[in-house]
Predict the structure.
Amino acid sequence: MPERRWRYGPSVGGAELGHLAAAFNGAFKLSTGSGGFESFGRVAAPLRDGLASIVTYSDGSTDIGTWHQQVPAPDKQVVSVRQNLTPLIDHGAPASTLDCLSCWGATLGGVADPARSAVGITADGRLIWAGGEQLTPSQLAGALLGARVVRAVELDINPEWVAGYLYGHRGGKGPLAPVPALSDQHGIPGEFLAPWSRDFFTIVAR
């Protein structure tokens, strides 16, 4: 049987461009063993019980929770799952390991407060992305808790890989206009509109 192809490539393209609202960085490289990834039935790294998981369903909704505890929903069809570490926030409370800096990823230069990012969900289902320079795990969790996030997963860290964009459509005339979500972010070459070597998330309007 031929290998199933990936539905989406290393950059935003095709029909998705016309509906693109935002995009932000993904999680740690799969080679770090920090979690699994599955998309449209194809598995890049096996999913693991107990890890923080970002789950998107066929109805377009996304949830965040601990795999095989809070997600997936039994009555929904899973489209994609991206896992990374254990939850940064669960049941509205920060992880008990926030002071264990090595638990939240290797940093360039060994600093305690590199650029960090995370995505969380509120009780009413709103997704919240947070990112910034010079953040400890505790500060990142605190920012999300301030936005009333009840469950969250840390995404990628270090300046080269933390970035988010909003996209202006210029009234349908001309190329998209990416707007950095963070004024001081290092930025992603090509702003996710050109091929990028790491995974990322897109938000599209229906």
The two ends are 34 Å apart (CA to CA).
